[in-house]
Amino acid sequence: MHIPPYHKKPTWRLFFVGVFFGSIIGYLVIIYMYGTMYEDLLKENIELTSEVNELKKQNNALLEDKEERDEESQQPLIVSSIEIIFEEPERLKMDLLIQDQLKALIRQEIDHLIGEELATLSKADQLLYSTIEHKGFELEELTYHFSVKKIVIDTELEIVLYPEAVQ
Predict the structure, then answer these.
(1) In this model, does residue 125 exceed pLDDT 60?
(2) What pTM was computed for the model?
(3) Rounded CA separation 118/85 (Å)
């Protein structure tokens, strides 16, 4: 019994080389598809986590404030949420992940405003301006500075920021 020498025939060599390179290319395609899927899921997870944390803080602040207000029997208008909007984020080439993380940093800085009375907040709006404009928000070894374009004081505090510089 004789085994034919396949290694000497060029057609078999081409077949085995094709199988080898085809498996490498297939592996690279699968790794790329997995990486993009994982990146999308990670981005969605970060967004949902920040949203859940924000809602928990907001809920706790509102519950505490409601207990205090029930004791006082007064119901003045209060700030119930904070919304931060970036104007022209592409100016400093901020992607959505960096925008979400910067919004979280800014919310941490002004989170104490949830549950405050609108009358008190409207008297101290310049303090809010200076708090945001004079603070550098550090993220990934870069410091972001913003100027406040507009603040809308209502039950939902809306702050429109314009990116000034990155250091």
Answers:
(1) yes
(2) 0.58
(3) 20
